[in-house]
Amino acid sequence: MQGELIEILLKTAVVLGVPLGVIPLIVHVERRGAAFIQKRVGPNRVGLFGIFQPLADVVKFLFKEEVVPAHVLKPLYILAPILTLVMAILPFAGIPICEPFMLGARKVYPEIFRSDLGVFYVFATTALGSYGILIAGWASNNKYTLLGSIRACAQMISYELSLSITLVALFFLYGTVDLHEIVRQQNASFFGFLPTWGVFYQPVGCLLFLVAIFAESNRLPFDLAEGESELVAGYHLEYSSMKFALFFMAEYLHMIVLSALFVLLFFGGYNLLPGFGLIVDMIPQSLPLFQFLSLFFKVALMIWFFVWVRWSIPRFRYDQLMNLGWKRLLPLGIANLMVTVLYVYWKG
Amino acid sequence: MSLLPFLVLVIIGLTLGVLLLSISQILGEKQKNPRPHDIYESGMDPVGNALKRYDIKYFLTGILFLLFDVEIVFLFPWALTYKDSANKELMIAEFLFFMAILLVGYLYVLFSKSLKWDD
After folding, report:
1. Per-residue pLDDT, A202
2. Domain span at residue B93?
3. Residue A99's pLDDT band (boundaries 50, 70, 90)?
4. Which residues of chain A are within 8 Å of residue B42 when distances are taken between CB atoms?
5. Is there a domain that residue A4 lies in?
6. Out of B6, B28, B29, whose CB is closest to A113?
């Protein structure tokens, strides 16, 4: 029992500690990236390249007044940011960061919450994110926040459909839901140089999944939940100081966990990047470390892609968003599934 | 299989949230100005109550999501058992039948204008 607890805490320190630790860095990259794309300078005063700016922001968050407006439903209003953070932390338990490795005579699984159906656990807990948003919007007792949260919820559930139908096709092709097995199947190569990544088996599925994770994490071009030009700030309008920061952290955690899943399912997951193989050949014990670094690097690229898209594509109108989700992506997902299944059947 | 990891994560999340909020509560500035405690409505005096009726379409979207999501959930066991099944023709026939029902349902929803948002 005690050994188990220590193991869980150690895994948590890596699987959860690293994402929480890099959030300030991501915020900084996002702001500098925005400045780079818009030909501005961006925050560059605090420390080298303004690297300490996020720290200054955190300090400022801590010293701001905790306003609890008089008109809100107080218990739910305070609960909502905490709940949102918990919901954003939970999916990390199912993410494998490296192969199961031998520690002495024992096989250690890198997931905090090891289960054969780990990927379903991740999706279930990711979907819980909409509860925090709904509670926040309702408890704030404000027209803008209510609209923002209802919109966000409708958007998230609409795009979850295309997400799950993509997954059906993908699991059908892999024949398993075990993320370790899925990553192992992506370790071979076509013609000796092209890796057998999921994106080459399911290009349409990959595109659908990509669009859906943008919508799920409420990022531009799908940030209708915030929609500054119409709803001021959406569901977190009445929140200030640290309570707002918790929503902010939860959004970034969502981005990280969905990017990690995307990489695991479509881009070879923790399979070693070119070059790492040489080092691992010399020191075989370092395999888990370099697998983790490979995954980390791919997720980092994915996060940069989020930033890139955010500052390149304008926001949709709400009816466009719903039409895209229900009338384009869902039929496309169904067609993708049909084609996949019939192709596998014909091939025998 | 133990649920301990799940509990540990919930406790970590709750602790982190409560800790950060209380630090901010203790360190943060306190003032007696009543202005920030009003409903924010673009600087105007608030009009009416916020918790009132909203568009039925959001509710419809929720119901439709439930329907379609349950149908997709039914597909997962099918997709995972296909590889090891003896009678592949039967599996494919079942799949096509299921998808045909799904398609009829989808077309009904489409023509009943439940998904029409631009009016």
Report:
1. 86
2. 56-111
3. confident
4. 232
5. no
6. B6
